[in-house]
Amino acid sequence: MNRGPPTGKTSLGAGWPKTDDNAYKPPTLIHPTAVVGPEVELSEGVEVGPFCLLRGKIRIGAGTRLISHVAVFGDTEIGCNNVLHPFAVVGDEPQDISYRGGPRRVRIGDRNVLREGVTVHRGSERGEVTVVGNDNFLMQNSHVAHDCRVGNSVILGGGALLAGWVEVGDMALISGNCVVHQFVRIGRLALMRGLSRTSRDIPPFCVADQTHTLRGINVVGVRRAGFSAQSIAALRRAFALLFGTRRNLRIALEQLGEPGGLAPEVEELAAFIRSSRRGVAFGRKAAAREEPEPA
Questions:
Q1: Residue by residue, what is the 3-state secondary structure of the chain?
Q2: Active site residues
Q3: Which of 28, 30, 115, 160 qualifies as a cystine partner to 48, CB 3.0-4.6 A?
């Protein structure tokens, strides 16, 4: 292992985008106190700050910054223009007592922000890879466990914890100190309110709090995502039918209508429910209608 800048030049890995040889390439900067292993590949413009540790078969894309005290281990690929804040740890061994050191991976896309103390663990003995997509914001001390699949434009609030094998859809928001049980799916544009917990799937476009309890449609989120007023109204009607009272979801889905005859967003909601293996979060016990939209 080399301390400080590697003796050989940093390399652009096979299959990575090539650039015009005459174009300006920002320098790769490695602080003298950083420890960078011999298998590490750093693209142009990468900054490795003070007291960082990079050990393993690591590839880091152009423009990514490791501010300081960042640790990256194992077979880990981090894309372009990410920012990793102090004490973030990526690619360490999974918190899985069956893990025996097998070659498991982490893949992180582009333009992600990992704030202080974020942890993203490699795949487990029975798994393969932990994936974080693009444009995600992982706030302080949030955790992405082994074999998770985090989509794009997801926000994890401070202290939010994803157990193994969790899947998070695009643009979902998991608020501060939420906990998500292993194998749970969080749908696209779903919102978990702070301090909530779930061991059941949270359908797309829905707001959840307390213990896997659904409160309504994430109207603010879907509106910001560009949904039309007609689509939002269709989702609210579907939510009232499916979750306005606690009932047999199979019967409710039959009453909702046949696939192919629904608005696309309602189709997505219904398909997610039908495909659930863990079961879906409940509607409120004593409420017969969706919560009113916040002012």
A1: CEECCCCCCCCCCCCCCCCCCCCCCCCCEECCCCEECCCCEECCCCEECCCCEEECCEEECCCCEECCCCEEECEEEECCCCEECCCCEEEECCCCCCCCCCCCEEEECCCCEECCCCEEECCCCCCCEEEECCCCEECCCCEECCCCEECCCCEECCCCEECCCCEECCCCEECCCCEECCCCEECCCCEECCCCEECCEECCCEEEECECEEEEECHHHHHHCCCCHHHHHHHHHHHHHHHCCCCCHHHHHHHHCCCCCCCHHHHHHHHHHHCCCCCECEECCCCCCCCCCCC
A2: 146-147, 164
A3: 30
